[in-house]
Amino acid sequence: MIHPARTTDSAETSVSKETNAKFKRRFMVRLVAVFIGGMFLDGYILGIIGPVTGPMRSELQLDELSLGLIAAGPLVGIFVGSPLAGWATDKFGRKPMFLLDMGLFLIASGAQFFITSGDGAVIQLVAIRFLMGVAIGGEYSIGGPLLSEFSPPKLRGRLLGLTLIAWYVGFMMAFIIGTLLHDAGTPWRLVIGTSTILALVLFVARLGLPESPSWLITKGRRKEALAIAHRYVESPQMHDSITEEINLRMVQESQAAQGRTKIKAASIGMLFSRQYWRTTLFTAGFWFCAVTPYFAIATFADDVLNQFGFGGGWTGGVGLSALAAAGVVTTVLLIDKLGRRILTVPGQWLCAGILLVIGVWADAPAILVLVLFLAFSFFNAGYTTMTQVYPAEVFPGHLRGIGMGFSAAFSRIGAALGTFALPWAISNIGMGPSMVVAAAVALLGAVLSQWLAPETKGRTLAEISADFSH
Q: Which of 79, 108, 351, 424 has the most CB atoms in a 10 Å sphere around its CB?
């Protein structure tokens, strides 16, 4: 016999659970969307300047130095903003800094509409692009840790890797939109100011997001962490991870009390302590070695390919970009199935070998050189995807922001070297030796990864940081 009251209770409980699950999934979709949107905006801001460089140069009478300063502004901003935002998010929280960072995007984007035509235009452009770089650096340091701290272990790699796809799409969309608007006669200030629309949407979408339970635990706010986890987290593995983090924090507090000391606050110096120097060496060194040869070759694709007797243009430059995008997509699809190491280590050895062959084989057929460059672009982009994954996983909660920020900043040194040193190297030592130097950088990254890269597939953040931080 069916008991009506019991049936009703059962139905209400079922609906309640279903609603809670839907709410948690909607929250996760929203979090992923606003972070991926931020990375899309990063790529868009860096790409939108290209289609309007001509009219900017003409109206403002820009010389090569001025153009170089405008181009370098975001790079310097990322170098400054990444560690600064990382320190701030570890100290003040993910939630306020995630919103503040998009607020900076919004202000800087809007300021582009009001750039004057006088002598101060270059200074204004450099300052605005610098602030945008600071905001981009903040996205790395704040968004990556926040997303990793809410992501189920079985999906974490894929979700973090998606951010790099968003960057590529944003960069390409900026080129398309910028070109169409420029061809339609749109003033260049309005073209570069289009980023304001997306920044405003993302700023509003980030309002009301919760604080990270992992960050709350590092501040001893366990009840708040559990309440947020209960409301927003669906994955049982994530709940287990949060429990492990709480237990670890309680042990640390007990040890500090016994020794009558305080738990040290996060700092740059702590990254180089006996406990964490391997983590820092791997994430910063791997990221540096991944982007240095890529920025050199991708930035000067036409010149590089022409030096080897093969025209650039659509066949070369666009081919390199297309293969890079394909490499990222392939890695994102496989990362949570095959694991991190197999998609990180072999590709670096292969890319080092490819660049060495290009550098040493001076008389190689042009078509072979093109194939090798395309292969390099594919595999390099594949393991470069891990630069968005590993730093957000291997640092413990109290250092995750500043660790990722420092690694991102250090990688910008490599990006700058790749961008600015290659023309000098080609002129002074030749293309072949320049490729050998690039091969040496890739080889260094392969050695570091072979030695230090952990396998983090399917593991909780608590398990990873416990194993890797000693």
A: 351
User: φ, ψ for residue 365 (rounded to 5)?
Assistant: -60, 145
For the domain made up of 269-457, give the CATH fold.
Answer: Growth Hormone; Chain: A; (1.20.1250)
- For the residues of 174-189, what is the DSSP string, one character each? HHHHHHHHHHTT--HH
Cα–Cα distance, 143 to 94 (Å, whole number): 8
d(CA 242, CA 227): 11
Residue with tokens 């996760």: 28
What pLDDT score was predicted for residue 265? 76
Quick: pLDDT tens for 325-384: 899 999 999 999 999 999 999 999 999 999 999 889 878 787 888 788 889 989 999 999
Q: How confident is the model at residue 33 (pLDDT cuts 50, 70, 90)?
A: very high
Number of Cβ within 10 Å of residue 208's Cβ equals 9
Going from N- to C-terminal start, the domains of the chain cover 16-209, 217-258, 269-457
pLDDT confidence tier of residue 319, bands split at 50, 70 and 90? low
Query: H-type helices in 112-235, by residue range?
Result: 121-138, 144-150, 153-183, 188-192, 195-206, 213-218, 222-232
Confirm or reject CATH 1.20.1250.20 for domain 16-209, answering yes or no.
yes
The span from the first CA to the last CA of the chain, in angstroms, equals 61
At which residue do the structure tokens 């593995």 appear? Answer: 237
Residues 6+ apart with CB under 8 A from 21: 234
268: nearest Cα among 100, 118, 117, 403:
403
Grouping H, G, I as helix, E, B as strand and the rest as coil, residue 234 is: coil
Residue 312 CA neighbour count, 13 Å, CB half: 15
Tell me which amino acid residue 82 is. S
- List, for residues 168-190, the tens digit of each pLDDT value: 888 888 888 988 998 899 999 99
